[in-house]
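Limitations
The structure tokens in this dataset are predictions for the assembled complex, not deposited experimental models. Users should treat interface geometry with appropriate caution, especially where small molecules or nucleic acid strands are included. An illustrative entry is reproduced here so readers can see what is and is not provided.
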Amino acid sequence: MAKAKTNTEDYLRMYRQMVRIRTFEDNANQLYLSAKMPGLTHMYSGEEAVAVGICEALTKDDKITSTHRGHGHCVAKGAEFKEMFCELLGKEEGYCRGKGGSMHIADQSNGNLGANAIVGGSMGIATGAAFTSKLLGKQDVTVCFFGDGATAQGLMYEVMNMAALWNLPVIYACENNGYSEYTKTEEIAAGSITARAEAFGIEAHQVDGQDVLAVNALTQKLVERARKGEGPFFMELMTYRYHGHHVGDINREYYRSKDEEKDWKENKDPIIRFRSWLVEEGIASEDEIEAMNEEIKKDASDAVEYALNAKYPDESEVDMHVFTDIPHALLRDTA
Amino acid sequence: MPHEVIMPALGMAQDTGLIVSWLKSPGDAVKAGDALFEVETDKATMEVEAPADGFLTDVQAEAGAEVPVGNVIALISDSAEDSGSIAHAAPAASTEAAADDAGADDTALPDGKEVIMPALGMAQDTGLLVAWHKAPGDAVAAGDILFEVETDKSTMEVEAGHDGFVAALLAEAGEEAPVGDTIAIISTEKPDAPVQRSQSGAKAAPSSAPKAETAPAAKPETKPAPKPAATKAPAPARADGRILASPKARRLALEQGLDLNRLVEAGHPQPFHVADIEVLKALPSAQASTGAAEASRHLTADLPSDGFDAFAAWAAETSGLSDTNALLAGLAAASLGREMATVSVERFGQSHAYYVPAGPFGAITDAEDDSAPDLILRDLRMSRVSTVSLGAETAPVLTLTRRDVGLCVTLECAGHQLSATEAVGLISEFAGRMEQPLRHLL
Amino acid sequence: MRNITLSQAVNEALAEEMRRDETVFIIGEDVAEAGTPFKVLSGLVEEFGTERVVDTPIAEPGFMGIAVGAAMTGSRPVVDLMFGDFIYLIMDQLCNQAAKTHYMSGGKLSVPLVLRTNLGATRRSAAQHSQSLHALVAHIPGLKVAMPSSAYEAKGLMKTAIRDNNPVVIFEDKLMYNDKAPVPEEEFLIPFGEANIKREGADITLIGTSSMVQVCEKAAEILAKEGIEAEVIDPRTIVPLDEAALLKSAKKTSRVIVVDEGHQSFGITGEIASRINEKAFYHLDAPVLRMGAMDVPVPFSPALEDITVPTPEAVAENARKLMSGEMIHAA
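Predicted assembly:
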């Protein structure tokens, strides 16, 4: 495995963040299965090294835009379980006061400009955030997370073109988990993914998305260069989603085999791989790791319990936040 | 702490899951991730894994049961014994549930043909059951009147439709029942314990035996007093319904107590706008234009209802005079005090004219279709209308409405049709005859 | 007071706001040296440079998306959409992203963005460069919609829009760019949601938007000669809408015609007429009439195009009918 960091605390935080994502998703899945969560959700399990490897290379002021499969990005960028579970359950204390839900969690305090329920919908936003950074002379870099499926959207090519023309500090991070919803990526993407960016003169890299240290090392380099005005960059992160497209996508053998899923889970799991590396390197003992896992499990179940009991927003909130300056949009026009 | 095993939400729009089979038995040791049971949804059959290590206990639903998503169907406990800590979760579609779902009244209904609340009006959701004409246990023929129902339009008698016995009456007189609901059951065999219930679910005691006396065919006095209609200011008489006027013109007329009808009578062209309100104000006042001869007359009299009902029953039995309308026409004509009269009787929106010569009621015949009536009798006893003020028509009108337990007679006519004295005479005579028909006949 | 063109008024508003606030920038196709095909932005790039007057490739969804992201992170973009007809291209970024971000984030994020575009037929530009599509965006909660009716409104509303923290869409009538009107030299803003009574009258209310305000004013002049006093009202913004002012006038005159250049069906005229119907019904002495553009794609031929939009004569004719109590659509 690539060795990018030497600081024990950093390694342990990366491990912790990956386990936090996995634990968050296990709980979210359980909430869905037990019919306690309204709506659907898309599990990030299996892709933890991508979000954590990237976000650990960013500062709090750096921005990210996220996707419908966005819980991992949100946790990796510093979000708290309690506010996230509250949002998943539509509660007032959620990050978006229950108005966004699973697919729209935004955490501005940590630079997360929000998940987006339109596939590829945030590519303009990420590029625009980078535009602000350049216009106002800030140091922020923006990472745009999207999946292989979003590479089929035209918006991507329009904004990559402009980002390249204007040398914007944006990194396009394509999480290639092999499936565009219920279809194999090779059936929806002609040619090479990285070549798409290269056509605009954007430097593109492919990296093992199950290796958190490799992802982190590459991101650190690119972020540093983007801050110096050498952007944009493109990364294709080879990864895998353990669940279906969404939690209700249970019967998926028509598009991928159980054997394939088993292989990724048993042989390429980013958490198992990093855990054994930590033990081999003497950074943490099995006991310490188990204790950390248990602590995170408890954090999560406490947050779930809290969120289940938290209050829903008051009905009077329904027409709040339509506009910034009109407290209740529906009262405005009433004569 | 035992872990709950929950019927999972698997499909996109799924409410229940069918347990195909249990793969573990109660008391079995299980590990987290072990397949516990198979569940079938609209999409597929899949295995559901145990959420934790432990023993499978407290299994609440057998294979074959359809269980609402989110329901606890078992526990994974620390020991193999059932804890009994789950509140019984009724399967969504088991036979027990069906019985439970039968509602507050758990008396099993007898077998038989169902009689439903019929749809009578165009946009009618419920019908008011006015009266049952049969009692539980009574024998009925298909053509027998079983009950009377009132809708927005009228009251109707409904036939049984089946031969047999009244095995169950599932609504009480005075109750509304949704159209299409079963309100009676007619069995082929005489029922041992006929059922009588109300719609509201309060259980009436099953009647022990059929009633001794047979209910008369027409027995309107058993009908509960209809709910009073919302009282409204009497609408002014209108030639043919609507007046076309702007909302503002209507509002101003209302605010200023002006009657837009007067513009209609004055032949002013419609639609009326605010400008026409000025025209209306300039019209000669109502008092000035309406002479004493043109005054309309409106008189009412109250009386008990049982006199006529008894008379009708008696007349039908003894003389075969079963046409109630003809009897009413006879009493009305006699009140007019003429040798002969044509009386038009309106009931349920249908009008029928009778030729009434002086003498016995047996001589009453149908009038010629085109003959103008001397008197109109409007029978609204079955309707919810409690008071009328409809204005004069081509002939004096006597209107019968229900009032409390008795009846109300209203006479309306134009000033030139009857003098004030004649009007008082007519209504007094008619009220007296309705109260004690036989005495007046004799 | 000096008279300047609507085009100059917009240019002045942008220049003043860009001087005042360095986070304001302009982005769009041919906005810099070209100053747009209508030359509205001429000269701005000389003062503010290509970093703040940003020429883009022909990629409307792309630069609209970039503007949304820039607005969410501290800039105040003014997006130049060359023709209102291109709104269809940016619908996702405008309606799914810009309009909903503040709400979906529970008030945490905001999108202070101005989308400048235009409307108006009779420029012989045919169906893809002549549409008036403001009703499309007015339908989406979260977007404000301004419709200047003269150079004065164009300047005051633009300056207010740039300072607003919500996404605002401004529709300029492309036939009015060279129309002059008195505009004060000193700074002024026009608040959103405040209608302007252009002309007072007691007999009938004519509500017009954008260029239709002029049409209503001309109709009022025709009617005045016949002794009919028409009141002309310009809502100036349709979101938010100054419903109170419209209702007040409707109650005063009892008769209303709503005139707008969008297609008549499912449009602004229907919305305003409906609100008056709901809230001033008992004050109406006649049905509220809608007069919009014909429900046809805008035709190219002048012989056809000119009859698709409301004219002063047509407005006056309908006003006469309402005044005389003639039954309109009474069958």
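Some entries come with short summary sentences. For this one: Chain B is about 20% helix and 30% strand.
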